[in-house]
From TrEMBL:
It comes from the Bacteria. This is Uncharacterized protein. PANTHER family: BILE ACID BETA-GLUCOSIDASE-RELATED (PTHR12654), NON-LYSOSOMAL GLUCOSYLCERAMIDASE (PTHR12654:SF0). InterPro entries: 6-hairpin_glycosidase_sf, 6hp_glycosidase-like_sf, GH116_catalytic, GH116_N, Non-lysos_glucosylceramidase, TAT_signal.
Length: 891
């Protein structure tokens, strides 16, 4: 978030509650009692249908969006590699948006939307929710011609159908990131058509997950009684210089590239002026077929698709004028016998190695992107993926099947995971020197902002090396001041943010835990220690509660002792204590331990008002400045939420913590935000009437000046529902056994992003694909009760429900796989590694039956082990490789 948001805030009335001269559009509400400080009107009784709540636990099936229900037009699943621009897979299987041209504009679809805030129509920019109130429509953003068509010859008839919405009776889209499944339905068609499409996505392998390509696996099953001759043609427009090319500036060129196991067409642009090669859209695109025997056409014309589109085959190269379209196509043919399946596979690739001009503060941009270093052009990309298709696509499919083959509900698995697709948009970059860098939202608020990205739990678990890079290269190098403060936007700021400071310390402990050994911790301990010392120094009176006014994620400097900040810093100090103990820095571990103990006691004693944790005003400044004070703030116990994510255990008082969460449920959660935002005006539209959510900050005691004497523009944030904050609360509720509430809150976010209303894959805050929303994966972690410490070889699961028959995926430092827990007259715990390897020495378990005996085996071979309380200790560490199982049986 940045202060430049105030442009919207002023026109939308965000400042209305605190300004002495009200904007004209507030006059219709002049008769409302207590206009300046509206009455709290979130209902304590939520009146939710018990049957609906029970249904949230059902395994059910993947979320299905259909043509019949008009649910396809907004769908845009990020379908390329990490940090390779934004290419969307649409609901009917066609690619759209094509945000690959290094566009400086804000958001995936820069626009100004019109929204009625209950008073009048106002203009809403991308960073203020334009795509929430007016979602981008796929058919309006088809920048490049791309698609597939099928021709069948059977029973003397020829039928041609494109894989697009208008050609089929119905289309079903299963929203299982990273590979969506799309089914094309027509009663009179003799083939079942099923497409799986998406980017290469392999957890723990950020290199192969960062290929600028979308893969299509098109399955055709013959359901008729006779043979069917089937042809599949795919086409791709030459996308080079698509945006900036002018007439007579050069020529488009399509060229064939091929090998024994693949063939493709690459589109390039040959400019008359060599300087034109530096244009942001100078590059190449490609379409590749995996296998042999396909027919290639470098100058196809597929509109409308006819027999000629399938049958024409011409020369190895073709050119066209700069402003003309030039299409490359590939056709594969196969005769399918009854009951059999044919599965041709295609790759769409792109290569535009020019960084954004607005990132000119970063020296890295001169050398371009990481993928530009790996691949010379889109033909090289197509060749690489084709030659390694079985491995790359196979492992992507393996992860998808591993993750979704779970006892957890499909909808829950989808919502908690899909936000990692943010990494496969123009929100993030990986430069040629391998440095990871990100915005808050697409092209909005630069600098891999510490106070936003620290909420995002997904990347640290799925691609931990990227987080380690961000700590080591940015937080503890470029951004670190001599006094240990971490500049919260690195090159784009000059000061630390206190919550981002604590978050970077906490993430350092998580990154250490997600490492195979202690090299990361030892290499970075001096900087981690300095960062912690800086944080501890912000406790002016030595009571373990941070009270120095510093910037925070709500874009303000708050005075006093703020439960949210105090608790987060206690958690960070606890993490530093744990790290200090591991590096044998006993003196500093003792300092941190004292701070934690003192802070825990004082937070519970002095910042709890009987119902929830508050913001105690500064003794001198009082409530002159903006703050949350005695209101109910969404992040008030965020530090404990983080502690559960990092395996730090219980911090301050459990009973008070749970009371605080129940107060958030009572005072901040509403099944319908409509009545609240109609009276508490000024927030941005991230939840609309008829939608449920948790409001950021409420005034349940109806105090006259709840947010201080001098209310500023940032107060408008208090009236919003921002999904990243909601996800962290849901993850905490899940960890505290408030399972109903955690599922309901997560489901409310899921339903707000239903495809009938907007893009399910784009959770919006300050612009599109907002990084904080990756906090959703923390709720998955909490549901599994997952803890892991790679250097110690420790892993633990404590599922929150379905404990007798639980199954879920897990990721470790060097491998990932599936965990199964079965309870009958015995307890069985099975770790099945699917990829890489996992080193184990100590396994934490739930004691669900009475037992005193343990048998551990690796692929049926006994492994000596002892049982100590709720922990199984292996006499010698074992390495469980891909394809192997470690089984623990207790009885």
């Amino acid at each position: 978030m940045k202060k430049s948001r105030r442009d919207f805030i002023k026109i939308s009335g965000m400042s209305a509650l605190g300004y002495s001269v009200l904007p004209a559009f507030l006059k219709p509400l002049a008769a409302q009692p207590n206009l300046m400080f509206p009455i709290h009107n979130i209902p304590e009784k939520k009146n939710l249908d018990p049957d609906w709540i029970r249904s949230l636990y059902d395994r059910a099936k993947p979320t299905l969006y259909t043509k019949a229900k008009n649910e396809l037009k907004y769908i845009g699943m990020p379908a390329g590699g990490l940090h390779a621009g934004t290419v969307y897979l649409g609901g009917d299987g066609r690619l759209w948006l094509w945000g690959i041209y290094n566009d400086d504009r804000e958001g995936v679809d820069p626009k100004t939307a019109i929204w009625n805030n209950g008073i009048e129509d106002v203009k809403v920019r991308n960073r203020d929710g334009a795509n929430y109130v007016e979602p981008s429509i796929a058919d309006n953003k088809r920048v490049l011609e791309q698609g597939f068509a099928i021709r069948i010859e059977a029973e003397g008839k020829t039928i041609i159908k494109e894989l697009k919405e208008s050609d089929w009776q119905d289309i079903h889209f299963e929203a299982t990131y990273p590979l969506a499944t799309i089914r094309y339905i027509d009663d009179d068609f003799p083939l079942e058509i099923t497409v799986q499409a998406g980017g290469i996505f392999i957890p723990l392998d950020p290199d192969n997950s960062a290929i600028p390509a979308t893969v299509y696996s098109i399955q055709l099953k013959n359901t008729s009684a006779g043979n069917v001759k089937a042809s599949v043609v795919g086409w791709m427009e030459n996308g080079a210089r698509k945006i900036t090319a002018k007439k007579n500036e050069g020529l488009r060129q399509n060229t064939v590239f091929d090998g024994t196991e693949f063939s493709g067409v690459v589109g390039s642009f040959h400019a008359n002026d060599l300087n034109a090669t530096q244009q942001r859209d100078a590059g190449t695109t490609s379409i590749t077929f995996v296998g042999g025997g396909a027919k290639l056409n470098v100058d196809a014309n597929p509109w409308p698709v006819t027999d000629q589109t399938f049958d024409s085959e011409n020369k190895k190269m073709a050119t066209a004028e700069a402003t003309d379209k030039l299409i490359g196509s590939i056709c594969a043919i196969h005769e399918i016998v009854p009951g059999k399946t044919w599965e041709p596979q295609f790759i769409i690739g792109w290569h535009f190695n020019h960084a954004l001009a607005k990132l000119n503060k970063l020296p890295e941009i001169e050398q371009g992107y990481y993928y530009g270093k790996r691949f010379k052009d889109a033909a090289d990309i197509g060749t690489h993926v084709a030659l390694n298709f079985e491995e790359l696509y196979g492992k992507t499919l393996l992860w998808k099947n591993t993750y979704y083959n779970s006892s957890l509900p499909y909808w829950f698995l989808e919502r908690t995971f899909l936000n990692i697709g943010t990494l496969a948009t123009a929100n993030t970059y990986r430069f040629s020197n391998d440095r990871f860098w990100g915005w808050e939202g697409v092209n909005a608020c630069e600098g891999t902002c510490t106070h936003v990205w620290q909420y995002a739990q997904a990347m640290g678990r799925i691609f931990p090396s990227l987080e380690r890079d961000a700590r080591q290269r940015t937080d503890f190098d470029i951004a670190m001041q001599d006094n240990g403060g971490i500049i919260f936007r690195a090159e784009y700021e000059s000061r630390p943010a206190i919550d981002g400071q604590a978050g970077s310390i906490l993430r350092s402990y998580r990154e250490h835990q997600m490492s195979v050994d202690d090299k990361f911790l030892k290499a970075n301990w001096p900087q981690i220690k300095r960062a912690t010392q800086f944080m501890l120094a912000q406790d002016k009176n030595g009571d373990g509660m941070i009270d120095s006014p510093m910037e925070n994620t709500l874009d303000a400097v708050w005075e006093g002792e703020i439960a949210w900040i105090v608790g987060l810093c206690i958690a960070a100090a606890k993490a530093s204590q744990m790290m200090a103990e591991e590096v044998n820095d006993k003196a500093f571990a003792a300092i941190c331990k004292t701070f934690v103990e003192k802070g825990n006691k004082n937070m519970a004693d002095h910042l709890f008002n009987g119902e929830y944790f508050i913001h105690r005003p500064d003794a001198v400044e009082g409530r002159k400045k903006l703050g949350s004070y005695n209101t109910c703030h969404i992040d008030q116990v965020y530090g404990q939420s983080w502690a559960f994510q990092a395996g730090l255990g219980r911090l301050w008082d459990k009973e008070k913590t749970i009371k605080a969460l129940r107060s958030l449920w009572k005072y901040n959660f509403t099944p319908d935000v409509g009545p609240y935002i109609s009276t508490h005006t000024g927030g941005r539209p991230y939840a609309l009437p008829g939608e449920g959510g948790m409001v950021m900050n409420t005034n349940p005691k109806n105090e006259a000046k709840p947010y201080g004497d001098s209310v500023t523009w940032q107060m408008g944030y208090f009236h919003e529902c921002m999904s990243g904050f909601e996800h962290q609360v849901a993850s905490h509720m899940m960890a505290e056994e408030m399972i109903d509430e955690a599922l309901i809150l997560t489901r409310c976010v899921h339903d707000r992003y239903h495809a009938a209303k907007r893009n399910p894959f784009n959770e919006i805050e300050c612009s599109d694909h907002y990084a904080r929303a990756m906090a959703s994966y923390g709720t998955f972690i909490s549901a599994c009760g997952f803890e892991y410490h790679g250097p110690k070889g420790y892993i633990s699961f404590a599922p929150k429900w379905n404990k007798e028959n639980f199954k879920a995926a897990f990721t470790a430092a060097e491998g990932w796989g599936c965990y199964t827990q079965e309870i009958s007259n015995k307890q069985r715990h099975i770790f099945e590694v699917k990829y890489g390897k996992v080193r184990l020495r100590s396994i934490g378990i739930q004691k669900l039956i009475s037992f005193n005996k343990v048998i551990v085996s690796l692929n049926g071979k006994n492994v000596p082990a002892t049982l100590m309380d709720d922990q199984v200790e292996l006499i010698t560490a074992v390495e469980v490789a891909a394809g192997n199982k470690l089984t623990i049986e207790l009885g």
